[in-house]
Amino acid sequence: MVGIKDPIREAVPHAVQLCYQAGVTVRMITGDNPQTAVAIAKEAGILPKDWVKKGGNDYTVMTGAQFR
Fold first, then answer.
1. pLDDT tens string for the chain (68 positions)?
2. How distant, in Å, are the alpha carbons of 4, 15, 32, 38 from that of 23?
3. So what's the pLDDT on residue 14?
4. CA–CA separation, 58 vs 68, rounded Å?
5. pLDDT for 66
6. Closest among 29, 33, 37 to 65, alpha carbons compared
7. Is 41 exposed, middle or buried (0-12, 13-18, 19+ CB in 10 A)?
8. Do 39 and 67 form a contact (C-beta atoms < 8 A)?
């Protein structure tokens, strides 16, 4: 088994922080699986490190399957 990781660019967390400070809402669109997307969003500072899905109507992380 082999695993790879494509690290985010070093400047991304700071850029996300600056966006939030300026009142810009940051959204991430990716084709990654939802768990991978959440891990990347946490690393980038888009989601808090302790974020967990709250259940039924939590649309923070969505997939196309939800709209079929």
1. 998 888 999 999 999 999 999 999 999 998 888 899 999 999 999 999 999 988 777 788 887 766 65
2. 34, 13, 27, 22
3. 98
4. 17
5. 63
6. 33
7. buried
8. no
**Can you read off the two tokens belonging to residue 56?**
């039924």
| Total Cβ atoms within 10 A of residue 36 | 12
Tokens at residue 17, please?
């922080």
Predicted pLDDT of residue 68: 58
Tokens representing 29 are 């669109």
Longest dimension (CA), the chain: 43
How far apart are alpha carbons 51 and 37 in whole angstroms?
Answer: 12
pTM over 0.90, yes/no: no
Nearest to 26 by CA among 14, 34, 36, 17: 17
